[in-house]
Amino acid sequence: MEPGAEGAIDSQTILLIEDDQDIARLIERELVGHHYRVERFENAQASLRRARRPDVDLIVLDLLLPDMHGFEVCQRLRSEEATAAVPIVVVTALADEAHRVRGFEVGADDYVTKPFSVRELVTRVRALLRRAAMGRRPAQETRGDLCIDRRRHEVTIRGEAITLTPTEFTLLDFFAKHPDRSSAGTSCSPIYGAKNPSSWSTTSTSTSVRSAAKSSATPNIRRCW
What we know:
The protein is an alpha/beta fold.
């Protein structure tokens, strides 16, 4: 592990897990130039131990590491409470659709393919850190019998998993975050956008979402259905 520049001691800490030294130095130089503190790692095992410390703000992760595939690193980070909510940016030469999809499935927040613009990478890092700072939410949230796992996109009621579409999950998570807006006919434009006004009403949501909402301890969410 090689620490970044000393002048960035009070800045946000980024773990850079990349075994290609030329690429690692290029990324580190740009991040340090934007006042981030960077700690470099060439393998997964050492970086996983470091990631468990509470001062880690974001991880930049290559997939083709010498001791472990980056997808497994993602899965391990997402499975541990200490690292479940840390933003992960994958930087890799694996550019095909199957790998990109798999990257998001195992927990990556962004996926950048090589060759890439270092300036664009830093912009993506800044955007993720900004969103994380504005609204950190627990990876799991329990309301009554309802448990929402945001990293795995899973919902359980009294321990039993229920099946939701991506839109249904987003709706349920939205109402868990905004219980004051969980009344019948509430506008869902923040979720759907402004293109399909006819779909904004919560009355069109499925029975599975209604069942999940009724198990919430928040009265307004229950009343929505």
